[in-house]
TrEMBL record:
UniProt keyword Iron present: no
Name of protein: RlpA-like protein double-psi beta-barrel domain-containing protein
Pfam families xref list: DPBB_1 (PF03330)
Species per Swiss-Prot/TrEMBL record: Obba rivulosa
Residue ranges of domain RlpA-like protein double-psi beta-barrel in the record: 60-140
Length: 146
């Protein structure tokens, strides 16, 4: 019939696999039920956060034309020239950014570099600046982010 060895294996193996599976699933199931997330599960999501926000930055305006990204902007385009540090040799060319001033929030495209702008400051196309304030104001301070 059964030897003591095969009886032991027949009894022990199912118990062993049940124990291993239960221990493995217990952590995952209890975390799923309680809503807890292990830090190692969060790590990959850290890189999908929103870009840096720039508050109280200087916005000036310019007349668009040929730009540093290699195209030509028209006077009606909502485009910005970014300070040299953030322009970073064109790494943000044609990227959309969000700008806010006076309760208005819009999106505009990075197409130019503003070598004279301080870090974080933006030069807005005349049409874009006019959306926020009259060009006669010359300078406004707003927020923007990537």
């Amino acid at each position: 019939m059964y030897s003591s060895r095969s009886f032991f294996v027949a009894l022990f193996l199912p118990f062993y696999f049940f124990t291993i599976c239960s221990a493995t699933l217990h952590g995952k199931l209890s975390n799923a039920i309680s809503g807890r997330v292990h830090p190692k599960d969060i790590l990959p999501r850290r890189h999908t956060s929103f870009g840096k926000r720039f508050d109280n930055e200087r916005f000036t305006w310019y007349e668009p034309g040929r730009n540093a990204c290699g195209s030509v902007d028209s006077p009606s385009d909502w485009v910005v020239a970014m300070d040299s540090q953030h322009y970073d040799g064109g790494s943000h060319c044609y990227q959309m950014i969000t700008l806010s001033y006076g309760g208005k929030t819009v999106q505009a495209k990075v197409t130019d570099e503003c070598p004279g702008c301080a870090s974080g400051a933006l030069d807005l196309s005349e049409a874009l600046f006019s959306h926020f304030a009259p060009t006669s104001q010359g300078v406004i301070y707003g927020e923007w982010n990537f």
